[in-house]
Amino acid sequence: MRQLSPEGAGSLWRESLPVPCTTITATCKLITPMYGGGVKAGAVDPNMPIRASALRGQLRSWWRLLHSRDRPSTEVFEDECALWGGISSKGPQASQVVVRVACRAVEDSRLIDGKPPDVPDYVLIWNRDEPPPKLLNQGYEFELSLELRCVEERREQVVEALRWWASFSGVGARTRRGLGAVRVNGTEVKPVHAKEVEDLGGQMVVGPATPKARAAWGSAIKQLSTFRQGPGMGRGGGNRPGRSNWPEADTIRRVAGKWAHDPRHPVDGVYPRAAFGLPIVFHFKDAKDPSDTLELAGQERERMASPLILRPYFNGETYHSLALLLPGWKERIGVPVALSKLGKDNSVKAWPDDMEERKRLASQIAPMQDRGEDVLTAFMQYFRDQIRPRQGRAHR
Questions:
Q1: What 3-state DSSP class applies to 269?
Q2: Which site from 64, 131, 287, 319 is most exposed, i.e. has the minimal number of CB atoms within 10 Å?
Q3: Quick one: average pLDDT of 329-333?
């Protein structure tokens, strides 16, 4: 028979006691319209617009992002199962986190059309032959509560995930482009600041203060739209849209061997904008250009979420436009990609690994010139450049 000292027996007894349950409660308010969120993709469920299961999944993914850096994936998975539940090497484990949502049914008057001016350009794309989707307008409120049965260290991790979700994410779909952004009021839900982001390898840039969340959101989205496709930046200047200043379109023409106008971009064989997220759909209108709508996708055609988040950011007092590169963003720059519907292997790395080659190519792509050696760094520098003049005027 195993012999136990009184101290050992006391320790085992204490470990067998149930962990006291603590509850975190917060009031949440939409500060931008919400897209989707229901069982049917792209649709608001009027009876249950905010789903506890979806919020739980978001919090779990933020926890994973925050606690996976420089750790073996197996170790992260074991810790994740211990806190959030799942089947680990120890067998099935119950979740130590219960997420509850209290929300009211949505009246038709709360729904708006998901098209400009209700939503900034470049946020939502839908089939133009169909009516635009209905969105839940900003101002909608709900209550979020987390019941925790875990030790203090685990509790702090859940609070940290909650803070990052509140600062940078939201509810529904397309949250990385600012839809469904929330303002969360709770004693433990403090805004995440730039130093915390930088410590984990991310980047965070905010614009000048503005009293309205929609204005901050529109400013952030406009900068991405201009950088990617705006006249004089992503495209040639003038009253009519000129040819793209990015190399992807001419690269596709060369790969397909078809073009209405001779490819003339000096950079070939790379797809820098793939780092913004995949898939990317290209549609050529001229008959002599590639005839099918082509999709640029990652390996095994898997979707790659954008590492860039644009939304209004609330610092506890005022709203600001936000551009955030998530920790791990550098891994997205040179992802393997391929074009669908060409009937041949055309897989390449979206952007080279060699730094000197990156510099050489970036110097020939107008939106990236003198801004960075990869598209994400270049965009963040462009974002900074756009907010500086306004910040300067605000301090005068």
A1: coil
A2: 287
A3: 95
Residue 3: predicted pLDDT: 53
* Inter-residue contact 252 to 339 (CB < 8 Å): yes
Which long-range contacts does 15-22 make (Cβ < 8 Å, 24+ apart)?
Answer: 18/149, 19/96, 19/149, 19/150, 19/151, 20/149, 21/147, 21/148, 21/149, 22/147, 22/148, 22/155
Q: How much is the average pLDDT of 74-95?
A: 91
Residue type, 207: G
Mean pLDDT on 135-157: 95
Q: Region 187-205: what's the mean pLDDT?
A: 95
Cα separation of 310 and 304, whole Å? 17
HEC profile for 192-261? Answer: CCHHHHHHCCCEEEECCCECCHHHHHHHHHHHHHHHHHCECCCECCCCCCCCECCCHHHHHHHHHCCCCC
Domains in the chain: ranges and CATH: 19-190 (3.30.70), 213-394 (no CATH)
Mean pLDDT value across residues 170-199: 95
Query: What tokens were used for 268?
Result: 């070939």
- pTM (2 d.p.): 0.90
pLDDT digits 0-9 by tens, 302-330: 789 999 999 999 999 999 999 999 999 99
CA-based nearest residue to 319, from 164, 201, 222, 182: 182
Mean pLDDT throughout 92-106? 94
Instruction: Give the C-alpha separation, 182 to 34, whole Å.
Output: 9
pLDDT at 69 over 60: yes
Distance CA 118, CA 135 (A): 9
Contact 174, 35 (CB under 8 A): yes
* Measured distance CA(224)–CA(379) in Å, rounded: 8
Other CB atoms closer than 10 Å to residue 68's CB: what's the count? 17
Q: Determine contact, residues 320/279, Cβ cutoff 8 Å.
A: no
Q: Which of 200, 165, 205, 193 is nearest to 56 (CA)?
A: 165
